[in-house]
Write a structure and sequence with these properties.
This protein has 186 residues and is mainly β. It has no helices and 14 strands.
Length: 186
């Protein structure tokens, strides 16, 4: 695995809040509770993807480069826990726009989804740690564990992106206790 470096950064900008960028956590009815899925209910057509560490996680973007989906398998072994808290209620609401990955501003790969849709994207071999809070109600996916200053952006009432400078450093998701992911609406 590659340790985080500048060539592994997911370059983003913070954009205005939009229905497309509103990521809602849901259970995947075709899988076990071990798959975390957050998607925009406003869009179903993904155009771009970023595949980290063999699909753990997969980030999806629409044709306007707005983050519209996330898939992350949850570790079967107990992930580490740390002190995690939800951002303050007055945190900025917005959406995340993809600028590029590392030094590549144009996609480097193409992939066909099972429904036939052709996606363009980036593949990165990067270890992406997942941590829970002690109560297992908050889960953070850490794209840049070394990020010092992170700006939280509310993507929905239960999902936040963290941006450090020019790149996506993490995603925080509120889930329910006992490790089960609940169906969330808006």
């Amino acid at each position: 695995m590659v340790v985080f470096d500048t060539e592994s950064r997911i370059l983003v900008t913070i954009a205005l809040e939009s229905p497309e960028g509103n990521l809602i956590l849901r259970t995947d009815t075709g899988a076990t509770d071990q798959l975390l899925v957050a998607e925009s209910p406003a869009i179903r057509n993904f155009r771009y993807y970023v595949n980290l560490s063999g699909g753990q996680p997969l980030l999806f973007f629409d044709s306007n480069h707005t983050l519209v989906g996330l898939e992350r398998g949850l570790p079967r072994r107990r992930a580490s826990s740390q002190e995690l808290t939800e951002p303050q209620a007055n945190v900025r609401r917005g959406s995340i726009k993809l600028s590029g990955v590392g030094g590549a501003y144009r996609p480097t790969r193409e992939r066909r989804r099972p429904n036939g849709t052709l996606l363009s994207g980036w593949e990165i071999d990067l270890e992406v740690p997942v941590v829970w809070n002690e109560e297992r109600t908050l889960l953070k996916i850490m794209f840049d564990p070394s990020a010092d200053e992170e700006t939280p952006v509310a993507l929905s009432r239960d999902t936040w992106a963290y941006v450090s400078g020019d790149h996506l450093s993490g995603l925080l998701v509120r889930v329910v206790s006992k490790g089960r992911i609940r169906q969330m609406a808006g």
